Amino acid sequence: MKKRFIVIEGGDGTGKSTQIKLMAEYLREKGFEVIITREPGGVTTAEKIREIILNEEIDPVTEALLFASARREHLKKKVIPALSKGQIVLCDRFVYSSLAYQGYARGLGIENVYKINEPAIEGMMPGLTILLELSPEKGIERINSNRTDEVNRLDLEGLDFHNKVRDGYSKVVEMYPENKYVKIDASQSIEDVFEDIKKAIDNMKL
Ligand code: TYD
After folding, report:
1. pLDDT per residue as tens digits for the range 66-76
2. CA-CA to 136 of 20 to 30 Å: which in 66, 101, 102, 106?
3. Residue nearest to atom 7 of ligand 1 (CA)
4. CA atoms of 43 and 114, how far apart (whole Å)
5. What is the DSSP code string of 6-69?
6. Would the CB of 106 count as within 6 Å of ligand 1?
7. CB 76 within 8 A of CB 141
């Protein structure tokens, strides 16, 4: 477990990218060196893998394996080097995304997908996972009203799938309680969500 490795998770439209920027500002003001990243994070090998995942119709197991491969490349080439310089790494999504999306929502099994990811992460679990919780209806509403980036294959899944993602996340955090997490009500205002996140970060004694 790496204390300075902080991950933000949640379904689509929960506001992860807005909150991660606020977190970075807050921690930089405190004097920490911070990087914001997300898989594939500008690592070219991981980006190429990601292109296949998002644009091709692929078998669910292949999808899980490819996410794990992209994850490892990003971890080895970007996350670990930053942590070893003492920087705080704020990462938008990590292995719990695979457990919730591929493991639970796609039905591969949370434990099976964890097994696929074990060799990819070799115990590099975050010091804190922040789970933003929001009803999929609201998430989809936000995506449709704020969307500036392109819509990918996974964004086009139906409400049923997004409900499963939400339930999957709840199960996952409880299945691995040795990994610290906080659940935050993402239906609140941006400011109130961030207040809750700040409390969690302050408790970490970074
Ligand atoms: P991402 O590019 O992070 O987009 P978003 O802005 O929606 O967070 O992720 C794209 C999609 O990939 C998103 O629907 C979540 C999904 N995903 C998985 O299914 N498994 C994974 O392991 C990861 C990291 C993402």
Report:
1. 999 999 999 99
2. 66
3. 12
4. 23
5. EEEEESTTS-HHHHHHHHHHHHHHTT--EEEEETTTT-HHHHHHHHHHHHS---HHHHHHHHHH
6. no
7. no
